[in-house]
Structures are given as structure tokens and as C-alpha cells.
Amino acid sequence: MERVLEELARSFAAPSATTWFKVASNKTPTLDEYRTKVVEFMNLFESSLSSGYQNNPNSKDILNFVKNGVRNQATIVLAGKNKDVEKRYKYYVDYG
Fold this sequence. Notes:
Helix content is 80%, strand content 0%. With 96 residues, it is mainly α.
């Protein structure tokens, strides 16, 4: 799960954000808008895992781990320290 959280922005959230902006016909979102949308998709991932594990009485530890991991990765994204998100944004705005 640790690896999934480390790769979450690159493998799921940033591509989803890019698709969202394409569908919304927004070819020039600001960098902050893009980062925020990436974090929104990261939070959706957390929510889906939470709902999937909620009926398991032994899942509290994994849910806390995921919640903290998503929060940590979101902080990195919002601070502009996730190179994959920054690169994907630049590519989308320049070539999207």
C-alpha cells in the first residue's frame, strides 16, 4: 500500500485531473487549479478504499495508514514538490 500511495498522484490522480480538464474544455488551468484537482482525485481514491474496507472490523489500521498517506502526498502535490504532477501540468498546458 505504501508504494500505491507514493505513486498515486502520478498513476491515477494527475491523469484523471488532465482528463477532467479536457472534458471541461479548459486548456489553460492555473497550476494551483491543476494541483487542487489532482488532490481531489487523490481524496476520491481514499474515499473508495474507505468504503471498500468499512465493513471489515480489522481494517482500522489500513484505513488510518491510507488517510495519513494521502494527506502527506497531497501536501507534497500542493507545495509543488511532486515532479510528475508538475511535468504533466506543463505538458498539458503546452501541448494539451
